Structures are given as structure tokens and as C-alpha cells.
Write the C-alpha cells for this entry.
Amino acid sequence: MKFQAIIFDLDGVICYTDEYHYLAWKAMADSLGVPFDRTVNNRLRGVSRMESLDIILERYNGTLSRAEKEALAEQKNELYKQYLSRMSPADLTDEVRSTLNILDEMGLLLAIGSSSKNAPFILQQIGLGGYFDAVSDGNNITRSKPDPEVFLKAAQMLCLEPSQCLVVEDAVSGAQAGHAGGFQVACLGDASAAGAGEYNLSTFSELLDVVGAEERIPYGA
Ligand code: B16
Ligand code: MG
């Protein structure tokens, strides 16, 4: 097989929590009187929580202490977690679920490489707690994408070399992180539109073509 493992980004690849990030950051920005819209929100894809806050505060007239910034990030995260608590296995599409199961049955190791500190909670909410062979996320890294740390840690957890793993990403910074770590990258969404990967996919199930799966998902599944 071309790859021994696949390392998936979470938000924008396995499930979609960007609207919840938007709503929670918007509430925080409104409380400070800082202009914030979906164009700014798009710049936060794949970016860590504190770096996201710094991007939002580019439009803030004034200075904030480290403690004030941490309180704002915490305020946003509390509201974000309230949205996450309403997620359920229905938030995982049949296409993603079926594709993951086929990849698993092929004997590929499957892992998560996400910048989010909430990754374990999100996985639990969508019914994938305990599903992956390794979870590398915002809790075990010190540098965020485009640094490759999160993907290198995932490969280490699987006892594999980057050349044996495929990274799947929706953010350009995430694709850059994969390349910086020596991984091949399959892109979806924004990163695919930008042609940032070796494989630029329109749908999640196209991963089956990338790994040369014989099984296909029945049309309309
Ligand atoms: P948290 P991913 C990323 O997840 C999100 O795309 C990004 O918008 C967010 O700021 C980051 O996680 C940190 O999330 O505040 O939950 O720790 O795309 O890397 O799975
Ligand atoms: Mg993402």
C-alpha cells in the first residue's frame, strides 16, 4: 500500500465546527466593540486559540495585558463549548463515516492531527471517541500549524515515519505543516481550492482513490 496511515485534521475535514468558532468569537468581539466578520473568521482556520485572538485584536484600539487576553480566550471557549455540547453523532456525515470504515478495514492506521484543545470532546460528541489509533491535538503541542509538530507527534504515536503517512487538511497553513514535516498532503475545502496538496479533493470519499481502495461507497450513501 502507498501509505500505512492517514492523519486527519478535525475541524473542516472530519466535522464542521467553524460556525461555532465564528459565533463564539463574534460574541467576544462584540463585547469589546471590535469589528469581526466572516472574512476575518476565515483567517482563523487551523490557527491556535491565542493566535486567533491576536488576529481579532488587530482591529482593537488599545492594549490588553496577558491576563486580560487569557480571560477573553476563556470567555470565547466557554461559549464555544456550549455549542459543542449540542453536537451528536448526527454531525458526522454518512460519507465520512463510511469512508473511515473502509480505510480502517483496509488495515490503514487512522489518526487525528488537530490544533484544537477541544478535539477529544468533539470526537466524543460525534461518536468517534476511542475510534482513532492516535489523537494528536492542541493539548500535546507547543507550536501550532504551519509548524509540523502536531503531525510529527501523531506519526510518532503510530510508530511510523512521515513518508508512510498521508495528512488530510482543509487549511493552507495545515497543508504547509504537513509538507514541513515531510508528509504528502491531501487537501479539501480552502486548501484544495488553493491547490496546496499533492492531492486536491472535492469530496472526502475521494480519499479512497488516493489510497487505491477497491471498495467504493454506493452512490447516494
Ligand atoms: P480550540 P483544526 C482548529 O482545529 C480550528 O480550525 C481553529 O479555528 C481553532 O482556532 C483551533 O482548532 C483551536 O481550537 O480553541 O478548540 O483549541 O482545524 O486544527 O482541527
Ligand atoms: Mg481544519
Observations:
- Residues 28 and 76 are 6 Å apart (CA to CA).
- The longest helix spans residues 66-84.
- The chain has a mean pLDDT of 95.
